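Protein Record: Sequence and Backbone Structure Tokens
======================================================
Scope: a single protein chain, as residues and as a discrete description of its fold.
Tokens: labelled as protein backbone structure tokens, with as many entries as the chain has residues.
Position: the record begins directly beneath this header, with no further notes in between.
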Amino acid sequence: MIALIGSVIVVASVVIGFLMAGGNLLLLWHPSEIVVIIGAALGAFITSNSLKVVKASFANAIGLMKPSRYTRETYVDLLKLIFDLLVKSRKEGLLAIENDIENPEKSNVFSKYPKILADHHMMEFITDCLRLMVGGNLDPNELETLLDYELETHHKEAHEPAHAVQQVADALPGFGIVAAVLGIVNTMAAVAEATSAELGAKVGAALVGTFLGILVAYGFVGPIASAMKARADEEGKAFEVVKMALVASVRGYPPQVAVEFARKLLFSEVRPTFGDLEGHLKSKPKV
């Protein structure tokens, strides 16, 4: 929603400022310029990216209208889930969580946290990490390195839509110039027959192309790309939290301490306090 508010402020500021200067909004309405700029930008965007990135870009841009999936409450659930799994594996052995890993939908542990269970990517990451712990016999450094590689790949993939949209933003001023040049070509073609007033109107229409290209780039598409990148970073933090807790557990720290290490990674806006998290976990069996 904040993205929509920002866009409204951009439009309102430009329109009000133009009207205050004595402008006429109809002077800015040139559908041909819009077709050239938006159409060319869309075509270049599709040409330069895979279908997967194109679909993800539109989905992520629309997703900015919704709040982030990982709220403070979601992180509390995630930390409680990891705590429960670590407690069970510590008390009963790592093999005790094998059935939970293979059938999380039927697991008594996972079923207590439906929000996490519904997150396909997070569930895949958690279960894959636990499989490595159960059957991989890796030392902590090897496990941490492997998970770092996986997170690097995940983050790169998550940032591809934002990068693709940013490229469109970078190209839009150029497409605005293309529209302006086409307008000047039409103006030059009409020099012999048009009056000075008509020529002025045509030149003004051509300049609207440059204006639209720059406005759309820096007022809308560029900020959307930045917001998409920030959202990817924000949601990627959840995977780092899981990695930290599991690696700390493999290093020999008890579940309570491993979860505390993970809590420290969270941004202040969504990080529960030590006492708050302890209050959520105090009814759980401790090792």
DSSP finds eleven helices and no strands in the chain. The two ends are 44 Å apart (CA to CA).
